[in-house]
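Researcher: Structure for this, please.
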Amino acid sequence: MANNESVTLRSPRICKDSVGNTMLDLAREEVPLCITEDLVPSIAPQPPSTTSIDFSGLLNPPLLLQDDPTECGGQLWPGGMVLAKYLLRCKMADLKDKTILELGAGSGLVGLALSLHLLRPSHIHLTDLPTIVPLLFHNIALNSPATPTTAHILEWGGCAPNARVPSPDILIAADCVYFEPAFPLLLQTMQELMHPETVCYFCFKKRRSADMRFVKMARKMFELKAIQDDPDDKVWGREGVHL
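Model: Predicted structure, token format:
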């Protein structure tokens, strides 16, 4: 609401009709009420901040990430933390010499964590919406990974692999399950990007019952296997995270 915005209030008045019955008269004068920031203070936007993450000593030097509090995708979410730590701890040998693509990369948490640990000739592609990609470029420059790492605009739905966004050997996605109408678009994009040998590591935190509908839809298109070799599975499992 704008500063000093006026709102008109109308309150009833008790009166009697011609035979003495009590009634409410709504046709009374309008009284303006002025609402200012003294009553409803505005919320000041939070400035970006930079976070250092070493995933319990798995990264040295640690990953540096600038967030963007104004964008949902520019913040750190639990699924990304769980997925990045699992891949760093348990799957680095499987990721060597692979082309890796991250969907909905946000600030680049998972993909950049891998880029600091992997060595060439692996190549990592971070993808997200046009409003998020500048943050990805910033965080790539902030970390200067030795592994070739690039950022691309990729909107879900109807995007076939091309020279810019290749069909990856490894597809990763963290906390991409948050908006039910986008489920078919996300699944379509995954299906179009993956080739028969592609392995996808997918992690999300269940926040609504509708989130599990994504899993049911995915089972009709892909072979799904729950991760069972993560030493922390009981910890993140209690927090409603699925990997």
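Researcher: Any notable elements?
Model: The chain has seven helices and twelve strands. Residues 78-90 form the longest helix (13 residues).
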